[in-house]
Amino acid sequence: MLVLNATYEPIHVCGVRRATVLLLKEKAEVIEAGLGELRAERTALARPAVIRLRTYAPVPRHGRRRLTRRAVFARDDWSCQYCGSRGDLTVDHVIPRSKGGSSEWENIVACCAPCNRRKADRLPHQARMFPRRSPRPPHPSVFIQVACPRVPDSWHAWLGQAA
Q1: Is residue 72 classed exposed, middle or buried when 0-12, 13-18 and 19+ CB atoms within 10 A define those classes?
Q2: Closest C-alpha to 108, from 84, 142, 133
Q3: DSSP SS3 for 114
Q4: Is-contact 30 23, C-beta < 8 A?
Q5: What string of DSSP letters covers 134-145?
């Protein structure tokens, strides 16, 4: 289930059980129903596809979200930022950690293993290898796509251009 904040901003993906608890505790409301319904002994609920929290929940803004390999790959469209290859991906520090580079969104890109070996422990200008796009914190919907690689059609209206 896609979880929207009170402001209709997509913030999370949760399972059916968690969505049902939020609905039963009246902490969320169904925005779009899925196919079928959830049944209990004395009640039945429409199966939610998209729910919205009734009160605003503060969420980490750009750059404060946890940096993971899958999120870096998703941000970089699952392709090497040096040659465009889509196979054998790893991550590369644009400025190597040994040269003072940090492990932050602005310094890490998706990179294929051959390019990573070729760049080695050198700065971009030394290796003559520059990322196709400058690394930056990802759009929040990237984390939705990492959590649920097959985005249901009913979510596209809520995820905007990044879906």
Answers
A1: buried
A2: 133
A3: helix
A4: yes
A5: ---PPPTHHHHH
The total of structural domains in the chain comes to: 2
Beta-sheet strands, E only, within the chain: 2-4, 10-13, 28-39, 44-53, 89-93, 108-112
In this predicted model, what pLDDT tens digit does every residue of 97-121 receive, in sequence order? 999 999 999 999 999 999 999 999 9
Token pair belonging to 128:
């003559």
Helix, strand, coil % over all residues of the chain, rounded to 5 = 30, 25, 45
Distance of CA 154 to the CA centre of its chain: 18
Residue 134 in domain: no
pLDDT at 130: 96
Q: Is residue 23 part of a domain?
A: yes
Q: Do 44 and 92 lie in a common domain?
A: no
Spell out, as residue ranges, where the chain has pLDDT lower than 70.
60-64, 149, 160-163
Three-class SS state of 156 = helix
Report how far Cα 23 is from the mean position of its chain's Cα atoms: 24
The predicted-structure confidence for 63-74, as pLDDT tens digits, reads as follows 467 888 988 998
User: What is the residue range of 8's domain?
Assistant: 2-59+140-162
CA gap 154, 41 in Å, rounded:
29
The Cα 65–Cα 49 span in angstroms is 24
